[in-house]
Amino acid sequence: MPPWHPGHSPMTHANAPRGLRLHIGLFGRRNVGKSSLLNALTRQQVAIVSAQAGTTTDPVEKPMELLPLGPVVFIDTAGLDDDSALGDQRVAKTRQAFERTDLALLVTDGAWGPYEQGIAAAMAERQTPVIVVRSKADLPAPEVALPPDLPVVAVSAQTGDGLNALRHALVDHAPADVISQPDILGDLVGPGNLAVLVVPIDKEAPKGRLILPQVQAIRDLLDNDAFCLVVKERELAAALDQLKSPPKLVVTDSQVFLKVAADTPPEVPLTSFSILFSRFKGDLLSQTLGALAIDTLRPGDRVLIAEACTHHPIAEDIGRVKIPRWLTQYVGGALEFTTVAGHEYPEDLSPYKLVVHCGGCTFNRKAMLNRILQARQAGVPLTNYGLTIAYSLGLFERALRPFPGVYEAYRAHRGEGRG
Which of 224, 266, 260 is nearest to 246 (CA)? Predict the structure, then answer.
């Protein structure tokens, strides 16, 4: 297999979750060759190609393996100059893709004007690196000055010229924190040490398998040469009694925080999967401080509950039932809750007093960080499912102690830091 072969590698990252993949967005006007470029890079007919402008409607996502970057997702988008009857909706979908893009390919057939400048500016706001791709390099093009401050690669999807240079540019400009994924919990446990994972098996647990954060946590521990013991909440106390020495960390599903906290000795560090994913996918410190806004909530305030994935809610759904119940009990009066899922997310967050977001296991980190940034720009605190549950149930400080830096920053913010 050639070193730049982009095909799936069944022994490595072929089944890597989308949230762990580098998201590469293709943006530009209609008919500049975005879909042809995607097909050439993947060596597959991923996107429909036509001479008719506006062929691509909704974003097309193609997970693949691109060595040496590893697992990536290419996002082919509709042109931002779409003035058709459905153009506004297509452009809105394209702009949503801005938020989950780690690295942008700004495709132009030689033109450079307001559309291209607007894309470059939007990416600069999000601190997203941009590579300008001069497409259709085998054809004559108008002499237009492309921006000197952005890398430019000339490519022909028809002849293949420039594709290797583009792949090298992808490696050179991919964000370092995406290429080098942080640990979920392996660094908190360490080689040769034990973590106990508490995994309830209830109506929300998929039959025959575990949910994604639990699977990823187990794999992360194995990658870090740590030991892993997986139990249900009812077996935790008995499992701890059988250990010769206490575990380095206990991690629980947030929904059984109270029982697990009662059964875990106070000297044993305890946190939740959701809080681990706040650190892994988002910004644990800002979401920790965001949770303090729970104390400012008053009956009648509006709270946005945001989930990264879409699923059919059950009777005791965590986002639609349990968190609203716990927050209402904590506040002592009815709150107004709005729930959104997937990529649907309000552009205007100002009506809300608080945003409570899931751990984002199906998102890439860029998408979560952009939501945190959007909330900060709107002046609306944003926190996380696990942090909200721990705060509402009086377990907040205990859940933060496994993260000394965040815990000390939180205490300093509360005026309890070391004097």
Answer: 266
Closest CA to 212 of 147, 157, 260, 277: 277
Q: Are 29 and 111 in contact (CB under 8 A)?
A: yes
DSSP state, residue 58: S
CA distance 229 to 215: 13
Contact 335, 327 (CB under 8 A): yes
Q: Give the tens place of pLDDT for each residue, 290-312.
A: 999 999 999 999 999 999 886 65
| 284: nearest Cα among 178, 408, 180 | 408
Tell me the pLDDT tens digit for each residue of 26-60: 999 988 999 889 888 887 665 444 444 444 456 78
Q: Tokens 């506004």 label which residue?
A: 88
Task: Establish if 334 belongs to a structural domain.
Answer: yes
* φ, ψ (nearest 5 deg) of residue 255: -70, -20
pLDDT band, very low/low/confident/very high, at 2 (cuts 50, 70, 90): very low
Position 5 in a domain: no
> Any idea what the CATH number is for the domain that residue 163 is in?
3.40.50.300
In a shared domain, residues 149 and 40: yes
The range of the structural domain enclosing residue 300 comes to 282-413
**Quick one: angle between helices 114-125 and 87-99, nearest 10?**
30
3-class state of residue 357 by DSSP: strand
Helices (H), 224-346: 236-242, 257-263, 273-281, 284-291, 323-331
Could you tell me the pTM of the whole model? Answer: 0.75
CATH number at residue 217: 3.40.50.11420
- Judge whether residue 22 has pLDDT over 70: yes
Per the rule left: phi > 0, alpha: psi between -120 and 50, beta: everything else, 345 is beta
Q: Tell me whether residue 336 is exposed, middle or buried, using C-beta atoms within 10 angstroms of its C-beta: 0 to 12, 13 to 18, 19 or more.
A: middle
